[in-house]
Amino acid sequence: MDTADSTSASGPQAPVRTRKRAARRTQSASMADVARLAGVSSQTVSRVSNGYAGVHEETRQQVLAAMRELGYRPNSAARALKRGEFRTIGVITFGLSTTGNVRTLDAIATSAAHEGYAVTLLPVAVPTQDEVLGAFSRLGELAVDAVIVILEVHLLDAVALSLPPHIQVVVADSDAGDCYTVVDTDQAGGTRAAVRYLLDLGHRTVWHLAGPEKSFAAQRRADAWRAELTEAGRATPPLVRGDWSAESGYRAGLELADQKDCTAVFAANDQMALGLLRALHERGRYVPDDVSVIGFDDIPEAGSFLPPLTTVHQDFAEVGRRCVEGVLRKMRQDAQEHGTTLVPTQLVVRDSTAAPRAPLEGQ
Length: 363
Prior knowledge:
single chain, 363 residues, alpha/beta, 6-stranded parallel β-sheet, 6-stranded mixed β-sheet, elongated
């Protein structure tokens, strides 16, 4: 008899409590259901769902356990309508192959998550205004509260460019301060420090391996290189241009290696500097004995180059943090601020730079 009773309890005649729990799991649970099971208020459940601070950890775990048992999932769309925001930031960018874009995007995502926001990436396949316009138009179809743009300024000046209502914008790495809120590293200051350091070592002048012609960062660094040499009363050598890649740096390096009066080169990024080091080595020009080399970015591998690369450090984490901080401030204040915030750079001296092998004429 005991055996029969035990068997029937696991079938259709299961205890009422077991049947109720099973029913709760199969039905759509509400916030009120979670509150009842956890023994807390619906407001507490809401605070836990939204990740707000101020909930005791034991209570938080109790609420989360109730959510798991009931299979409760917060309705983010409903919460967004109620709050008037989606807690999501869109990021429009072209290309994730460059060091700056990748590290800036990583910093933006990290900073956004710290503020309780998600990031939606809108990649621009080809750097044309039509592609940029398409990315901006897609913002109207996505649940985003604001957008951070990592693009060259010439792609942002289309007359037809428009944003969905109430979308705030911050632009990273661009010369668009009169029209947008911009966050950028101090490109000019970092370049001037690099050139000045080489001149102070005793080099008569500094050659420049520049980035692509349409790049804002490349142009800003080239202008600062030229200005620093002019102010120092030094001759300005012909500019040699690459495309940010190590391969283009190698090709340019073969050209520079044949310039026997070239004793110092400032490369617009570390990847091109890497190719330059290879080309100089193959042509028998030793670094830094024959030629000093400085890069820009301070990528994680820069200290492992042969020789370890002197370079200009960019604080991408701070750029990302300030982009998120700026766009959230504009959202909360509904502000239409413009202008540029510059994040300082720092010259990191390693073994790829030294005084010229012998005193030069005119020194």
